[in-house]
Write a structure and sequence with these properties.
The strands form 4 sheets. The chain has a 7-stranded mixed sheet, with helices on both faces. The protein starts with 8 loop residues before the first strand and ends with a helix. The protein is built from 18 helices and 14 strands. The protein is elongated and about 85 Å long. It folds into 2 domains: about 270 residues, Crotonobetainyl-coa:carnitine coa-transferase, domain 1 (Rossmann fold), CATH 3.40.50; about 90 residues, formyl-coa transferase, domain 3, CATH 3.30.1540. Strand 12 and strand 13 form a beta hairpin. By secondary structure, it is of the alpha/beta class.
Length: about 400
């Protein structure tokens, strides 16, 4: 079986997270993704303390299934190497700050003159237009500016950053959507285009019904902790063993089942709680009743009982427990790759499951691992030219990277 994006070649200029996560998933789907790094490598190879056997776990988590090449885009001959790759590629992805691609002469206008079919996708904090375009921006600043932090955290408490770097991740995911849409349009028009993704835009889009309620009803959403402003019970409860369980009663059919599980059948038709709107409005009365009962059983006892009675409920897992969950394992969401330096390593898998596109996972590249292979195999450079480029500092090979 052929993989979904087989035959698509992507040049990945991405750094750290926002520029690497999306291109990794395109690589998972079969695109040939060539990660182009400077001589010092992606910043994430060095920052932080997340190294395993001298390799960055952060980098390995974001760059599987890619080929790695070192090209100095500031070196004239390095830029020519990149332009040669553009001539035979479909997509260029980056997450540089606006203005950088122009200074490096790797912007869409320049590259489309070399290859009119090229698609350039840029993910940045604020996009390439607007009054904030020149500002630096990182995930938490975007979460704050977008309003997302204002609705995350406990009522009356300080705003809280989401545990996931959601602005980075959403920017990268929306970038892949833009790339695939542009590839489809190119089939009709024969031309590529520029895809401009602002992380702030993605967070505004994710406000979805929060924005709708503000615009139509004048409601400014507030922090609700683990709760929901319009639905109850839809919250986390402490159990007998001081663990937490989430109960999500969304839809009228689950309220009677939940009451029977807690042996509070008398509340099913209580006029204060018989409809979701009433339960939500009267949660201050209902919440302590439920919490008191939830402390009578352990987490495992409640999970078993509620699942048996078809009540939507789940334990609040720590990451280790989530990664050992049988449903997660059954869906192949924990994968193992054999890294050339550190050996077998496990990572989170790809959530896109396709009936006619097999999953294949290769490890993230070591710095400069595929430089000679790509220059020789894709561009047809001679061994002499490859050696000369490395000697002049325009490129770097794996062996030289290890010894430098």
């Amino acid at each position: 079986m052929e993989r979904a994006l087989a035959g698509i070649r992507i040049l990945d200029l991405g750094r750290v997270l926002a520029g690497s996560f999306g291109s990794m998933h395109l690589a998972d789907l079969g695109a040939e993704v060539i990660k182009i790094e400077p001589r010092e490598g992606d910043d994430v190879r060095r920052i932080g303390g997340d190294h395993y056997r001298d390799e960055s776990v952060y980098f390995m988590s974001l760059n599987r299934n890619k080929k790695g090449i070192v090209v100095d885009l500031k070196h004239p001959k390095g830029k020519e190497v990149f332009y040669d790759l553009v001539r035979v590629s479909d997509v260029v992805m980056d997450n540089f700050r606006p203005g950088v691609v122009e200074r490096l002469a790797v912007d869409y206008e320049t590259l489309s003159a070399i290859n009119p079919r090229i698609i350039c996708c840029s993910v940045s904090a604020y996009g390439h237009t607007g009054p904030y375009t020149d500002r630096p921006g990182y995930d938490m600043a975007i979460q704050a500016l977008s309003g997302g932090m204002s609705i995350t955290g406990e009522p009356g408490g300080p705003p809280v950053r989401m545990g996931f770097p959601i602005a980075d991740l959403a920017g990268s995911i929306y970038g892949t959507m833009g790339v695939m849409a542009a590839l489809l349009q190119r089939q009709r028009t024969g031309r590529g285009q520029k895809v401009d993704i602002a992380m702030l835009d993605t967070q505004i889009a994710l406000l979805m019904y929060f924005a709708g309620c503000y615009f139509q009803l004048g409601e400014i959403p507030q922090r609700m902790g683990a709760g929901h402003p319009k639905t109850y019970p839809y919250a986390a409860y402490r159990t007998k063993d001081n663990e937490y369980i989430v109960v999500a009663i969304y839809g009228g059919q689950f309220w009677p089942k939940f009451c029977r599980a807690l042996s509070i059948e008398y509340l099913i038709d209580d006029p204060r709680f018989d409809l979701n709107e009433k339960r939500s409005r009267n949660r201050a009365e209902l919440a302590p009743i439920i919490q008191a009962i939830m402390t009578e059983k352990t987490l495992d006892e409640w999970v078993q009982l509620l699942n048996e009675l078809d009540v939507p409920a789940a334990p609040v897992n720590t990451v280790d427990k989530a990664l050992a969950n049988p449903q997660v394992l059954a869906r192949d969401m924990v994968i193992t790759v054999d890294h050339p330096k550190v050996g077998p390593t496990r990572f989170a898998g790809n959530p896109i499951k396709m009936s006619d596109s097999p999953e294949v996972f290769e490890p993230a590249p070591v710095l400069g691992q595929h430089t000679a292979e790509i220059l020789r195999g894709i561009l047809g450079y001679t061994d002499e030219k490859i050696a000369s480029l490395a000697t002049e500092g325009a490129t770097m090979e794996w062996g030289r990277a290890l010894s430098s």
